[in-house]
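Q: For a teaching handout, I want to show students what a protein-ligand complex looks like in C-alpha coordinate form. Below are the inputs, and the small molecule is zinc ion. Please produce the holo structure.
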Amino acid sequence: MKGTMLYGPRDVRFEERPDPKIIEPTDAIIKLSAACVCGSDLWPYRGVDPVKQPVPMGHEYVGIVEEVGSAVRNIKPGQFVVGSFFASDNTCEICQAGYQSSCIHRQPGAPTGAQAQYARIPLADGTLVATPDIPADDLIPSLLTASDVLGTGWFAADAANVKPGSTVAVVGDGAVGLLGMLSAKQMGAERIIAMSRHETRQQLAREFGATDIVIERGDEGVAQIKDMTNGIGAHSVIEAVGTQEAMMQAIRSTRPGGYVGFVGVLHGVEIPGEEFFFSHVHLHGGPAPVRRYLPELINLIWSRKINPGKVFDLTLPLEQVVEGYRAMDERRAIKALLRP
Ligand SMILES: [Zn+2]
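A: Here is the structure, written as C-alpha coordinates, with zinc ion included.
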Protein backbone atom coordinates (compact mmCIF):
# COMPACT_ATOMS: atom_id res chain seq x y z
CA MET A 1 0.00 0.00 0.00
CA LYS A 2 0.98 3.64 -0.03
CA GLY A 3 1.25 5.76 3.07
CA THR A 4 2.69 8.97 4.50
CA MET A 5 6.00 9.14 6.35
CA LEU A 6 7.71 12.08 8.05
CA TYR A 7 11.50 11.96 7.75
CA GLY A 8 12.39 15.30 9.34
CA PRO A 9 11.37 18.97 9.39
CA ARG A 10 9.23 19.69 6.30
CA ASP A 11 10.25 16.37 4.77
CA VAL A 12 7.02 14.40 4.40
CA ARG A 13 6.75 11.69 1.75
CA PHE A 14 3.96 9.60 0.28
CA GLU A 15 5.59 6.27 -0.45
CA GLU A 16 5.30 2.50 -0.70
CA ARG A 17 4.73 0.94 2.75
CA PRO A 18 4.18 -2.61 3.97
CA ASP A 19 0.50 -3.64 4.01
CA PRO A 20 -0.71 -3.53 7.63
CA LYS A 21 -1.38 -7.01 9.03
CA ILE A 22 -3.18 -8.33 12.09
CA ILE A 23 -0.54 -8.59 14.82
CA GLU A 24 -2.63 -9.00 17.98
CA PRO A 25 -5.88 -10.99 17.97
CA THR A 26 -7.67 -7.80 19.10
CA ASP A 27 -6.59 -5.85 15.97
CA ALA A 28 -8.62 -4.82 12.95
CA ILE A 29 -7.46 -3.72 9.52
CA ILE A 30 -9.47 -0.93 7.90
CA LYS A 31 -9.48 0.49 4.40
CA LEU A 32 -9.47 4.29 4.81
CA SER A 33 -12.44 6.11 3.25
CA ALA A 34 -10.90 9.49 4.03
CA ALA A 35 -7.95 10.89 5.94
CA CYS A 36 -6.71 14.32 6.88
CA VAL A 37 -3.86 16.42 8.21
CA CYS A 38 -4.14 17.48 11.86
CA GLY A 39 -2.94 20.76 13.34
CA SER A 40 -0.91 18.65 15.77
CA ASP A 41 0.90 17.02 12.79
CA LEU A 42 2.42 20.46 12.21
CA TRP A 43 4.42 20.32 15.46
CA PRO A 44 6.74 17.54 14.20
CA TYR A 45 6.43 18.81 10.59
CA ARG A 46 7.85 22.17 11.68
CA GLY A 47 10.53 20.50 13.76
CA VAL A 48 9.12 21.75 17.08
CA ASP A 49 8.76 18.08 18.10
CA PRO A 50 12.02 16.45 16.98
CA VAL A 51 11.79 13.44 14.64
CA LYS A 52 14.54 10.90 15.41
CA GLN A 53 13.52 8.31 12.81
CA PRO A 54 10.98 8.25 9.96
CA VAL A 55 7.47 7.99 11.41
CA PRO A 56 4.16 7.01 9.83
CA MET A 57 1.74 9.95 9.92
CA GLY A 58 -1.99 10.35 10.43
CA HIS A 59 -4.18 9.54 13.43
CA GLU A 60 -7.69 10.54 12.28
CA TYR A 61 -9.57 7.87 10.40
CA VAL A 62 -12.82 6.44 9.12
CA GLY A 63 -13.13 3.43 6.88
CA ILE A 64 -14.43 0.01 6.08
CA VAL A 65 -13.29 -2.95 8.15
CA GLU A 66 -11.36 -5.41 5.96
CA GLU A 67 -10.30 -7.99 8.50
CA VAL A 68 -10.44 -8.59 12.26
CA GLY A 69 -8.30 -10.65 14.64
CA SER A 70 -9.59 -13.84 16.27
CA ALA A 71 -10.48 -12.14 19.57
CA VAL A 72 -12.58 -9.32 18.05
CA ARG A 73 -16.26 -9.89 18.90
CA ASN A 74 -18.27 -6.79 17.98
CA ILE A 75 -16.53 -5.18 15.03
CA LYS A 76 -17.09 -7.05 11.75
CA PRO A 77 -15.66 -6.92 8.22
CA GLY A 78 -17.75 -4.69 5.97
CA GLN A 79 -18.74 -2.24 8.72
CA PHE A 80 -18.00 1.48 8.37
CA VAL A 81 -16.18 2.55 11.52
CA VAL A 82 -14.93 5.66 13.27
CA GLY A 83 -12.05 5.50 15.74
CA SER A 84 -9.76 7.96 17.47
CA PHE A 85 -6.11 8.77 17.95
CA PHE A 86 -5.73 6.52 20.98
CA ALA A 87 -6.79 2.89 21.04
CA SER A 88 -8.49 1.87 24.27
CA ASP A 89 -10.09 -1.30 25.66
CA ASN A 90 -13.17 0.68 26.79
CA THR A 91 -13.53 -1.70 29.75
CA CYS A 92 -10.91 -0.69 32.34
CA GLU A 93 -11.76 1.54 35.28
CA ILE A 94 -10.38 4.65 33.56
CA CYS A 95 -12.32 3.97 30.34
CA GLN A 96 -15.49 3.33 32.31
CA ALA A 97 -15.05 6.74 33.91
CA GLY A 98 -14.92 8.28 30.42
CA TYR A 99 -11.17 8.85 30.08
CA GLN A 100 -10.44 6.38 27.29
CA SER A 101 -7.46 8.46 26.13
CA SER A 102 -5.79 7.47 29.44
CA CYS A 103 -6.87 3.80 29.20
CA ILE A 104 -4.52 1.55 31.19
CA HIS A 105 -4.00 -0.37 27.91
CA ARG A 106 -3.74 2.76 25.78
CA GLN A 107 -1.94 2.47 22.44
CA PRO A 108 -1.62 4.74 19.41
CA GLY A 109 -4.95 4.62 17.53
CA ALA A 110 -3.42 3.94 14.14
CA PRO A 111 0.21 2.84 14.72
CA THR A 112 0.78 2.18 10.99
CA GLY A 113 -0.40 5.74 10.16
CA ALA A 114 -3.80 6.86 8.89
CA GLN A 115 -2.68 9.09 6.02
CA ALA A 116 -2.54 5.86 4.08
CA GLN A 117 -4.68 3.42 2.12
CA TYR A 118 -5.00 0.92 4.98
CA ALA A 119 -4.43 1.05 8.73
CA ARG A 120 -4.11 -1.38 11.60
CA ILE A 121 -6.28 -0.45 14.57
CA PRO A 122 -5.43 -2.06 17.95
CA LEU A 123 -8.11 -3.03 20.52
CA ALA A 124 -10.73 -2.87 17.77
CA ASP A 125 -13.74 -3.69 19.96
CA GLY A 126 -12.94 -0.93 22.42
CA THR A 127 -11.66 1.65 19.95
CA LEU A 128 -13.99 1.52 16.95
CA VAL A 129 -17.63 2.53 16.71
CA ALA A 130 -19.63 1.33 13.69
CA THR A 131 -22.11 3.65 11.98
CA PRO A 132 -25.71 2.42 11.50
CA ASP A 133 -24.99 1.68 7.83
CA ILE A 134 -22.54 2.62 5.08
CA PRO A 135 -22.76 6.45 5.08
CA ALA A 136 -23.68 8.68 2.16
CA ASP A 137 -20.48 10.09 0.67
CA ASP A 138 -21.24 13.64 1.83
CA LEU A 139 -21.32 12.49 5.48
CA ILE A 140 -17.81 11.05 5.36
CA PRO A 141 -15.93 14.34 6.04
CA SER A 142 -18.12 15.05 9.08
CA LEU A 143 -17.67 11.50 10.40
CA LEU A 144 -13.93 11.94 9.98
CA THR A 145 -13.97 15.06 12.17
CA ALA A 146 -15.58 12.99 14.95
CA SER A 147 -12.35 10.97 15.04
CA ASP A 148 -10.36 13.90 16.39
CA VAL A 149 -11.10 17.59 15.81
CA LEU A 150 -14.80 17.44 16.60
CA GLY A 151 -14.28 14.98 19.48
CA THR A 152 -11.56 17.27 20.82
CA GLY A 153 -13.62 20.46 20.41
CA TRP A 154 -16.52 18.72 22.12
CA PHE A 155 -14.33 17.62 25.03
CA ALA A 156 -12.97 21.17 25.32
CA ALA A 157 -16.50 22.57 25.64
CA ASP A 158 -17.46 19.82 28.08
CA ALA A 159 -14.28 20.35 30.15
CA ALA A 160 -15.04 24.09 30.12
CA ASN A 161 -18.41 23.23 31.67
CA VAL A 162 -20.47 24.87 28.91
CA LYS A 163 -24.13 24.94 29.97
CA PRO A 164 -27.30 26.40 28.50
CA GLY A 165 -27.04 30.18 28.79
CA SER A 166 -23.24 30.23 29.22
CA THR A 167 -20.92 32.84 27.81
CA VAL A 168 -18.03 31.03 26.15
CA ALA A 169 -14.79 32.48 24.79
CA VAL A 170 -12.69 30.44 22.38
CA VAL A 171 -8.94 31.03 22.05
CA GLY A 172 -7.77 29.60 18.72
CA ASP A 173 -9.50 29.61 15.34
CA GLY A 174 -8.03 26.37 13.98
CA ALA A 175 -10.25 23.38 13.30
CA VAL A 176 -10.49 22.41 16.98
CA GLY A 177 -11.35 25.94 18.14
CA LEU A 178 -13.99 26.26 15.40
CA LEU A 179 -15.54 22.92 16.30
CA GLY A 180 -15.36 23.90 19.97
CA MET A 181 -17.71 26.74 18.98
CA LEU A 182 -20.05 24.28 17.22
CA SER A 183 -19.95 22.10 20.35
CA ALA A 184 -20.64 25.03 22.69
CA LYS A 185 -23.65 25.96 20.57
CA GLN A 186 -24.98 22.39 20.74
CA MET A 187 -24.56 22.51 24.51
CA GLY A 188 -26.73 25.60 24.65
CA ALA A 189 -24.24 28.45 25.06
CA GLU A 190 -25.94 31.81 24.67
CA ARG A 191 -22.92 33.85 23.73
CA ILE A 192 -19.88 32.47 21.92
CA ILE A 193 -16.93 34.81 21.49
CA ALA A 194 -14.44 33.73 18.83
CA MET A 195 -10.94 35.12 19.26
CA SER A 196 -9.80 35.24 15.63
CA ARG A 197 -8.11 37.68 13.30
CA HIS A 198 -8.59 35.72 10.04
CA GLU A 199 -11.57 36.69 7.95
CA THR A 200 -12.33 33.29 6.41
CA ARG A 201 -12.13 31.68 9.84
CA GLN A 202 -14.39 34.35 11.36
CA GLN A 203 -16.99 33.49 8.74
CA LEU A 204 -16.89 29.80 9.58
CA ALA A 205 -16.91 30.69 13.29
CA ARG A 206 -20.20 32.52 12.76
CA GLU A 207 -21.63 29.60 10.81
CA PHE A 208 -20.71 27.30 13.70
CA GLY A 209 -22.39 29.54 16.27
CA ALA A 210 -20.04 32.39 17.24
CA THR A 211 -22.02 35.49 18.22
CA ASP A 212 -19.04 37.85 18.65
CA ILE A 213 -15.53 38.17 17.25
CA VAL A 214 -12.53 39.55 19.11
CA ILE A 215 -9.45 40.22 17.01
CA GLU A 216 -7.14 41.35 19.82
CA ARG A 217 -4.73 38.89 21.42
CA GLY A 218 -2.91 38.64 24.75
CA ASP A 219 -3.72 41.29 27.36
CA GLU A 220 -5.73 43.34 24.85
CA GLY A 221 -7.81 40.29 24.02
CA VAL A 222 -8.41 39.66 27.73
CA ALA A 223 -9.47 43.28 28.21
CA GLN A 224 -11.98 42.91 25.35
CA ILE A 225 -13.51 39.77 26.90
CA LYS A 226 -13.77 41.54 30.28
CA ASP A 227 -15.42 44.54 28.61
CA MET A 228 -18.02 42.25 27.06
CA THR A 229 -18.79 40.44 30.33
CA ASN A 230 -19.38 43.24 32.85
CA GLY A 231 -15.71 43.20 33.76
CA ILE A 232 -15.75 39.66 35.19
CA GLY A 233 -14.84 37.32 32.32
CA ALA A 234 -16.51 34.38 30.58
CA HIS A 235 -18.10 31.40 32.33
CA SER A 236 -16.21 29.02 30.07
CA VAL A 237 -13.10 29.40 27.94
CA ILE A 238 -11.81 26.93 25.37
CA GLU A 239 -8.05 26.97 24.83
CA ALA A 240 -7.25 25.33 21.48
CA VAL A 241 -3.73 26.49 20.72
CA GLY A 242 -1.26 25.30 23.36
CA THR A 243 1.15 28.23 23.64
CA GLN A 244 2.03 30.33 26.70
CA GLU A 245 0.19 33.37 25.33
CA ALA A 246 -2.95 31.39 24.48
CA MET A 247 -3.10 29.58 27.82
CA MET A 248 -2.67 32.78 29.86
CA GLN A 249 -5.19 34.53 27.62
CA ALA A 250 -7.64 31.72 28.40
CA ILE A 251 -7.07 31.73 32.17
CA ARG A 252 -7.28 35.53 32.40
CA SER A 253 -10.46 35.66 30.28
CA THR A 254 -12.27 33.33 32.70
CA ARG A 255 -14.29 34.64 35.64
CA PRO A 256 -13.56 33.45 39.19
CA GLY A 257 -15.29 30.07 39.54
CA GLY A 258 -15.28 29.62 35.76
CA TYR A 259 -13.69 26.89 33.68
CA VAL A 260 -10.95 26.57 31.08
CA GLY A 261 -11.08 23.51 28.81
CA PHE A 262 -7.61 23.19 27.28
CA VAL A 263 -6.97 20.90 24.34
CA GLY A 264 -4.13 22.55 22.43
CA VAL A 265 -1.10 20.32 23.08
CA LEU A 266 0.83 22.48 25.56
CA HIS A 267 4.33 23.42 24.44
CA GLY A 268 6.59 25.21 26.91
CA VAL A 269 3.69 26.57 28.97
CA GLU A 270 4.34 27.68 32.55
CA ILE A 271 1.47 28.89 34.68
CA PRO A 272 2.47 31.35 37.42
CA GLY A 273 1.41 29.61 40.63
CA GLU A 274 0.38 32.63 42.64
CA GLU A 275 -1.75 34.12 39.88
CA PHE A 276 -3.41 30.76 39.29
CA PHE A 277 -4.04 30.31 43.03
CA PHE A 278 -5.94 33.56 43.29
CA SER A 279 -7.77 33.15 39.96
CA HIS A 280 -10.32 30.60 41.24
CA VAL A 281 -10.36 29.14 37.72
CA HIS A 282 -10.95 25.42 37.07
CA LEU A 283 -8.49 23.94 34.57
CA HIS A 284 -9.35 20.70 32.82
CA GLY A 285 -8.16 19.30 29.53
CA GLY A 286 -5.53 17.14 27.92
CA PRO A 287 -5.82 14.56 25.13
CA ALA A 288 -9.54 14.32 24.48
CA PRO A 289 -11.28 11.06 25.35
CA VAL A 290 -12.88 11.12 21.91
CA ARG A 291 -14.18 7.55 22.31
CA ARG A 292 -16.52 8.72 25.10
CA TYR A 293 -18.35 11.03 22.71
CA LEU A 294 -18.30 8.98 19.48
CA PRO A 295 -21.78 7.41 19.76
CA GLU A 296 -23.39 10.81 20.43
CA LEU A 297 -21.37 12.61 17.74
CA ILE A 298 -22.04 9.93 15.11
CA ASN A 299 -25.74 10.23 15.92
CA LEU A 300 -25.72 14.04 15.53
CA ILE A 301 -23.91 13.76 12.19
CA TRP A 302 -26.01 10.84 10.94
CA SER A 303 -29.21 12.77 11.62
CA ARG A 304 -27.63 15.84 9.95
CA LYS A 305 -28.09 18.05 13.02
CA ILE A 306 -24.49 19.24 12.72
CA ASN A 307 -22.17 19.62 9.74
CA PRO A 308 -18.64 19.74 11.18
CA GLY A 309 -17.18 18.55 7.85
CA LYS A 310 -17.36 22.19 6.71
CA VAL A 311 -14.10 22.68 8.55
CA PHE A 312 -12.30 21.05 5.59
CA ASP A 313 -11.61 23.89 3.19
CA LEU A 314 -9.20 21.95 1.00
CA THR A 315 -9.78 18.50 -0.54
CA LEU A 316 -6.92 16.65 -2.17
CA PRO A 317 -6.33 13.16 -3.46
CA LEU A 318 -4.44 11.16 -0.82
CA GLU A 319 -1.31 11.05 -2.99
CA GLN A 320 -1.08 14.87 -2.72
CA VAL A 321 -0.78 14.72 1.07
CA VAL A 322 2.48 16.72 0.91
CA GLU A 323 0.55 19.70 -0.49
CA GLY A 324 -1.95 19.27 2.37
CA TYR A 325 0.86 19.77 4.90
CA ARG A 326 2.19 22.79 3.02
CA ALA A 327 -1.21 24.44 2.76
CA MET A 328 -1.86 24.03 6.48
CA ASP A 329 1.66 25.07 7.46
CA GLU A 330 1.29 28.27 5.43
CA ARG A 331 -2.22 28.75 6.81
CA ARG A 332 -3.69 28.65 3.31
CA ALA A 333 -6.05 25.94 4.56
CA ILE A 334 -7.82 25.39 7.89
CA LYS A 335 -7.81 21.65 7.41
CA ALA A 336 -6.97 19.40 4.48
CA LEU A 337 -9.19 16.44 3.60
CA LEU A 338 -7.49 13.57 1.78
CA ARG A 339 -9.49 11.16 -0.35
CA PRO A 340 -7.96 7.87 -1.48
ZN1 LIG B 1 -9.31 1.18 29.29
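A: Two things your students might notice: The longest helix spans residues 290-302. The chain has two domains: 2-148+289-339, 150-285.
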